[in-house]
Amino acid sequence: MSRNKEIGDYGEKLAVQHLMNSGYEILEKNWRYSRAEIDVICKKSEHLVFVEVKTRSSNRYGEPSDFVSARKEQFMIDAASAYMYEKKYEWKFRFDIISVLLHKDGSFKLQHFEDAFFPGW
Question: What gap in Å lies between CA 45 and CA 54, rounded to an integer?
Fold first, then answer.
């Protein structure tokens, strides 16, 4: 397994733990549709939440959340649409980003950006 894959998997594990500790119900992890993947699909109250997790071991080139491109957002929107169609879900939803910055001493900084983007913005 590559170092980047290990870092990403660890960041997703931290993100899922954060979400559960914050009262979210985890529905899916690494849900795939065509070429797109949604890292975490969860639910809190009346909202279905699609989460992109970005993990980096350095912020030399920017914060992890800065690396969610417009193309990635569109892939997530397409996948979320397919998921909601498959589950016959027609209520409130949103797209969140969780940014995880790993420090050399083993600590980390996690930021949860709710409603990070929306289709059509």
Answer: 24
